[in-house]
Amino acid sequence: MKILAIESSCDETAAAVVEDGRKVLSSVISSQISIHTKFGGVVPEIASRKHIENINPVIRQALSDANLTLDEVDAIAVTYGPGLVGALLVGVAEAKAIAYATNKPLIGVHHIEGHISANYIENQDLEPPFICLVVSGGHTHLVVVKDYGEYEILGKTRDDAAGEAFDKVARAVGLGYPGGPKVDAMAKEGNPHAIEFPRGAVSGSPYDFSFSGLKSAVLNYLNQCEMKGEEVNRADVCASFQASVVDSLVSRAFAALDDFGYKKLAIAGGVASNSAIRSAFISECEKKGVEFYYPSPILCTDNAAMIGSAAYYDYKNGITHGLDLNAVPNLKLGER
Ligand code: ATP
Ligand code: MG
Ligand code: FE
């Protein structure tokens, strides 16, 4: 089964053709990063307008890269939430129009289900059940993937998402937007033990995360340096901040693996492309005999291939949508 998938929930306009949930025939991503950089973050109204300009060429390119015509795909999938409402609406309207014109099934996909499913693409042997740590720009979720399309959320962040923390710290140290990759690169030059930043915890909730205290600690540190007239070692700040994030993520994930007796762990979302996070999990999983799965960086950040993968398993579970499908900006994982 070949699915044409569309993703437009934030600032990437993306289309892909995916066969049977695991084989990517094409994947096209048009990023708007250069446009939003000058504003220091994603401007929703600009994102929507750019999606409208980009979506048809991106879909045409995805079909042509896959060497297929629209007639030769079997279903149309689209992210319908969560995300920016105006941005989501562009993809949803486009997918509905194509589904109507071609009389093919329409499958609305949860964006985070897409991030999780990115793991199926390069790991042909990965099957549920497993534990997945979702760390993206807007989400930090520790999830049991019980079966395809069946999720139990064990914990989530009480305040900032991991990606949000990376982006805010990047801005504070003057690295600009998007911050994650820049902090990652700069941290490689720094000492992760140079500054003792707090490890956020939520008392009584062993699987929940908190990053706002860490963010404040970084800001306080920078302010104190400024007041004392001391020069800031930005590489040390990045490395020490990142070390705190790594500790929080690793400790929660392994608490869940131990408590629930799972031996398989996956990570997903844009922050999952962070090099320190990946290497910490690789070595910890090796030590503890846990199988570890993670997508290539290009499949961690927003793309449509992951949506095509999730859509295939949704379709196999009997899920299709009517032409009344709407964008749901705050859609919860597991909700339809
Ligand atoms: P969500 O998926 O929660 O709706 P989103 O789609 O905006 O949010 P993603 O595309 O999954 O988020 O990921 C983008 C986030 O990942 C940004 O916050 C970015 O800074 C972060 N990120 C990307 N690469 C890295 C990296 N190497 N290290 C740390 N963070 C990173
Ligand atoms: Mg993005
Ligand atoms: Fe995302």
From TrEMBL:
Query: GO cellular component annotations, sorted alphabetically?
Result: cytoplasm
Q: Where in the cell is it found?
A: Cytoplasm
Any idea what job this protein has?
Required for the formation of a threonylcarbamoyl group on adenosine at position 37 (t(6)A37) in tRNAs that read codons beginning with adenine. Is involved in the transfer of the threonylcarbamoyl moiety of threonylcarbamoyl-AMP (TC-AMP) to the N6 group of A37, together with TsaE and TsaB. TsaD likely plays a direct catalytic role in this reaction.
GO BP, one annotated term: tRNA threonylcarbamoyladenosine modification
Top-level enzyme category:
transferase
Q: Where does Fe cation bind?
A: 111, 115, 302
Task: Identify the keywords attached in UniProt to this record, alphabetized.
Answer: Acyltransferase, Cytoplasm, Iron, Metal-binding, Transferase, tRNA processing
Task: Point out the gene that encodes the protein.
Answer: tsaD
Q: How, per the record, is the cofactor bound?
A: Binds 1 Fe(2+) ion per subunit.
What sequence ranges are listed for the domain Gcp-like?
Answer: 23-308
For this chain, the family text in UniProt reads: Belongs to the KAE1 / TsaD family.
Q: What is this protein called?
A: tRNA N6-adenosine threonylcarbamoyltransferase
